[in-house]
Fold:
Amino acid sequence: MRLSLLNPILTHDGPWASVYVDASYTTQDAAKRQELTARAAAQELADLGAPAATCEAVHTALAGPVGDGPIGRPKASGKRAGRAVFAAGGEVVMDVPLPGPPAAPLTTTWSTLPRLTPLVRAVGDSPTCLVAYVDRVGADFELHDDAGEREQGQVSGADWPVHKTASADWSERHFQTAVENTWEQNAAEIAAATHQMWQRTGADVLLLVGDARERKVVRDLLPEPLRSRTAESEHGARPTGPQSPQLARDIAQVRAVREGERAAEVLDRYHAGREDDGGGQAVAGVPALVEAAREHQIDTLLLGPAGPDAGREMWVGPKGDQLGLRSTELQYLGEVHPAAARADDALLRSAAAGGADALVVNDPGAAPVGGLGALLRWPAGPH
Structure:
């Protein structure tokens, strides 16, 4: 998961109200249920010690549609979904739709740092899929992720000649050669534009949609590593119209496959880095992770299921690299008023501040010992 999702919290001081709710308001009394949930969340936060302004901000956000928050997005109606709201200083800083409801209908916390781990677990890696609808004269591009689909533009090549004839006459054979040349030129332009779009959007996987011959020609012209991240679908064509259920399934499948591939790649690197000859490229345990976080050394933070290290208490300051196992350590980092926080949330904030990624490891057998580990940007020093 790209932790850039958490960027809004990095510029705000705590303490934080964190609320996770089931936002599946699909019954006739949906509006009433939503208001009751908003009231309950605000009351729970007040009971935990949150100030009135922050409680009111959370109530207002939860009583309205997803999207009122700074990074909120509209939720598809009629689907089971969840919602995470984070507020500090009397304002909602993040309002995030979740792909499914949380484990409990309503969970609230009032703490030094926002309660981030459930958000990362719910959102997952969420690979982005660039869809290119190709034909003989051009391509249309769409970007698909958990927020839905967004048009990204198009490319057009020569529109004549592009259709062959059945005649064997010499002039017609000459015409057919011209058609082949037009196809090849257009395919080269489409491939180049697709590569540029891939780089601009930062997509994780590419799906080519259209006629089999046109898909193959374009795919063969793509550079590596894009070609190895490319899949194809026959369920769609230009011009784009309402998305077919088959194409929607194809998009979901390639995103899921890419998510699994990335998880396997990261875990392979992590376990190799933990071996005696792994060069110290991976660490586990809170003390080693704290040291790596202070040095902005974390490349990918790994979160295992229900590991005992996740809830371990540590001490933090307002900056991402101000964290330690004892409050006295923070004095050497320039913070005279440290506060206690959960280890998983402190390390997630630090990883986000350092531009790192995160991976949720659901398999207990593959997860780091204790539930927390990291791939490093450079080898750890001797201890």
In short: The first helix runs from residue 30 to 48. Confidence is low (pLDDT under 50) at residues 68-78, 160-171. The chain is about 35% helix and 25% strand.
